[in-house]
Amino acid sequence: MNSKITRPPRENTLSAVEVFGAIGLIALQLAIAFVFTAILFLLSFNMDSCAGSGTCNYQVAAASLYMTLITAVVTVLLSIVLTIVFTRRGQSAYFYPVIGNIAVALVGVVAIILNLTSLS
Fold first, then answer.
1. What are the two backbone dihedrals, phi and then psi, of residue 113, each rounded to the nearest 5 degrees?
2. Taking the CA atoms of the chain, what radius of gyration do you get in angstroms?
3. pLDDT for position 8
4. DSSP calls for 51-81
5. Which residues contact 40 (CB under 8 A, 6 or more apart)?
6. Helix, strand or coil for residue 13?
7. Measuring CA to CA, which residue among 102, 105, 100, 57 is closest to residue 80?
8. Contact 75, 26 (CB under 8 A)
9. Is the pLDDT of residue 111 over 70?
10. What is the pTM of this model?
11. Tens digits of per-residue pLDDT, 61-91?
12. What does the alpha-carbon distance between residue 70 and residue 97 come to, in Å, rounded to a whole number?
């Protein structure tokens, strides 16, 4: 007697709703990154108040500005690749884009906090 449980194989095709949902979630990652980058760009004008005082950490401020952009590029590429690879293995098409959205939002919040603390 064989103790192995056999399941019927899931087809590797996705419905149109799943495909457009995954594409929409990946586009949402870019939109979130754009919003955080715009906020950080506006916050970077606080550097003018630090001129000559020596109280600002310009390296951290610059790093916080690029942090969201780099994270967005990496997570979008990873989301696309991992979604394609793991949906072929039968996993959900939404899992990795949702994780990417959470990662971009968390890094955006951390970047804003770093920017505010470095320029005060």
1. -60, -45
2. 20
3. 63
4. TTT----HHHHHHHHHHHHHHHHHHHHHHHH
5. 64, 65, 68, 108, 111, 112, 115
6. coil
7. 100
8. no
9. yes
10. 0.79
11. 889 989 989 999 999 999 999 988 888 887 8
12. 16
